């Protein structure tokens, strides 16, 4: 675990007990509708397995398991042990505990085999990762050919005027509201700063392609406050077809 990972883990350990309540208040409840859309795009079939990167308190895992086949399962990965303990308790109370397994780990070094999961999901995690290209490459590594990644994250509204209004709220007012509600003011100062350095939706799409994903696309939510990126790992049949094209192109005329 890197120094950055340790700082992030410590911060989320501190804010874990109030994290869900503050999210609801500061987002005016819109984070729920964003997660519902991510769940709809990531729904699992019979026997399928998802990896929830940055599982936090388990919101996305609960939504995904409720919406998916009863034999589907989720492994929740997070740096924060306290967040994962909360997620485990919530899944148990929802009657989903047997279908969920928490795992303390970094998104930059996910301790699972290659091509292990059918789906990657993530909610509000990417901007907290120290080495994002490395984490995206890890996500592709653990995703099975034909699998899909559905990544929900805050973004940068494309409209310049709305972007200024949003930044004023997120960077100035939100930390004060968090402090009034008993949250960790310093943590809620860090979170807006993390967004300033985070790529916008088109650039993140390019990063996913650079990591080897195919079929990359994104949806802007609530005027671009958030975005969902959908990316796939090409099926093996597609990879074989591509290699056959290359071989055929190199084959001298008259030879088979």
Word description of this protein:
The structure is a single chain. The protein has a single domain, classed as Rossmann fold, CATH 3.40.50. With 256 residues, the chain is an alpha/beta fold. It has a seven-stranded mixed sheet with strand order 3-2-1-4-5-7-6, sandwiched between helices. The chain is built from ten helices and seven strands.
Describe the protein's topology.
Elements: H1 3-15, H2 19-26, H3 30-42, E1 49-53, H4 59-67, E2 73-78, H5 81-93, E3 100-104, E4 117-123, H6 132-142, E5 143-154, H7 160-180, H8 185-196, H9 201-210, E6 214-221, E7 226-232, H10 236-250
Parallel strand pairs: 1-2, 1-4, 2-3, 4-5
Antiparallel strand pairs: 5-7, 6-7
Helix pairs in contact: 3-4, 7-8
Give the structure's gist in a few sentences.
This protein is α/β, with parallel strands linked by helices and 256 residues long. The chain is 49% helix and 20% strand. Helix 3 packs across helix 4 and helix 7 (160-180) packs antiparallel against helix 8.
Portion in helices: 40-55%
Q: How many independent structural domains?
A: 1
Give a quick account of the main beta sheet: strands, pairing sense, barrel closure.
7 strands, mixed
For the record, what CATH class applies? Alpha Beta
Oligomer: single chain
Count of β-strands: 7
Going by CATH, what is the homologous superfamily?
Vaccinia Virus protein VP39
**What CATH architecture label applies?**
3-Layer(aba) Sandwich
Shape: globular
